[in-house]
Amino acid sequence: MNVNTESVLKDALAAEADMVDVPEDPWAGFERRERTHKRRRRTAIAGVVVALAAAGGVQAGVVPLPGWVPAIQVAGFNAVLGDGPVRGSLAGDKTFLDGLRREIKDIEGPGETWRVADRQAIRFVYAADVGDERLVLALVPLRFGFLEDRALVWYVGEAGAPATELLESGRVDGGEPVVTYSQTRSDGPGILVVVGPVGSTVSVSQGFRYTPEGTVEHGPAQQQPADTGLAEMTLPPAPTPPETKATVTLGPDVIYEGGVGGGWAGNAYDPHEVSEAMVTAALGDRTFDRATLQSWITGAIRDARVTAAGTAITLRWTGTVNQQPAALLTIQPKGGGVLAYAYHGAADSYRQDLRLLLPVKGAAERPIAWRLRADGKDDRTDQVVVTAPSGAHKVTLEIGGAAPAPVTLDATGAAVVAVPPFAAAQVTAYGKNGVVLGTTPVPPFETSSGGLPGDTPLTRVVG
What we know:
The chain is α+β, with helices and mostly antiparallel strands and 463 residues long. The protein has six helices and 28 strands. It has a domain at 276-459.
C-alpha cells in the first residue's frame, strides 16, 4: 500500500466516523485490520515473485533457496508480543519448550507452504496449563520462497501433554498486540486466555443483554492481575456459545476492546434453529420460500447470539433486491431490544445487508433503510433500500442537510434510492394527516461484522 492510498483511506474513514458520531478515529482499527489483509495478499505478491523466479523454481519450493538470498518482508511492523519474557506456568520449563521448538511444523496454506525460517528465532510468548488444556503461543518466523513473515501461532494439547502431542490450533498476524484463545462447551467448564503486552492490564466481561432502550449491556468487567498482560480464566458450562468481551489497557490507552472468539462444543441440537411453527407464524399470509426464510431467521438469531426459544420474530417486508428474493425481519429476545435484519439471495447463498439494534418503543412504526454493496463483491454502491412501516402514507428521505424529498414506494412498500456511500441520511414515515410515525438514520456500511449488533454506533440508532 502506498502513502497516497493510505491518505485517501484514512480521510474516508475519518469522514465515515464524523458521519456517525464515532468518538474516535477508526484509522487505528484499520491499521490493525490491514496487517491481516497483508497476510491475505501474500498469494498476490507471491505471484509476482513467482514470475521472476519461475525458471529456477525457487518460489514454488522446487529448488532450495540459497541462504544468502535476501527475503522480501511481507509486512513492516514490530512484533510487540515477541519483545518480552515468556509468561505462564510453563515459562521456566526449558526442556518442554526446547522440545516444542523442534516439533513446530511448517504452516500449510492453500497452494503454499510457509516454512519455519529459523527455529532458533522462534520466540515463545506464553506457555501454561489452563484447565484441562496445555497452551503455547509462539512467534514463528516463516518463509515462502523470497517472502518472509512472522505469525503468532497457538499450539494446544491436553494438560501435561509432551511437546510431541501439541498441535497447531490457529494463528494470527505477528504484529497483533493482543491475542485471545477460548474453548467452551455445554457439558463442562471451558477456558479463556488473553495475552497482551507486558505492562498492560486485561479486563474480561462475560455475558450481555440487549436493553429495551436499544443498547448492548455487557456483564461487569473483571480486572485480571495488573500489568501482567494476561487473563487466564476457567469459564462455566455454556448451553450456547458465550459472548465474552476483553479490554486491554496500556497506561491510559485502550489497545484492544472486543469479543473473544473461540470454539464451542454444544448439544446435539442447534439452539439457534427456528421451528416450522415459528416460520409459519412469521410468514402469516405472505408468500415466501419457507426454507429461505427459515435459513435467514436462524442466521439472524445466531448472529445476535440469542436462542430461538423465547425470541419473537416479525417479518416486516418481503420483495426483491437485485432481482433476488429479499426480506426485512426483526427479532426480539424476551425483555430485550429489537434487532432488524435484511437479507437477499437464497436459503444457502445470501447476503446479510443490515443488522441494526432499535429501541422497543416505536420500533414497529419506524421506516428502515439499508445500503447495498455490489453483488458478489464488497464494493460500496450508492443504492439504498427504503422500506415503510405498516400504516405509512408517505416516506421522505433527507440526505445531509438537504430538504426532505418524497420517496416513491412500490407495491411492496419499498423503494431503491440513490445516496452517496459516505453521506449521512435519514428516512421519515408519516401517517394520516401528516403525523410523523418515526425517523430512522440510514446506517453506514459496516467495516466488520464480527461483533454484536448494537455494540458500536454503526449498528444502533441510539447514540
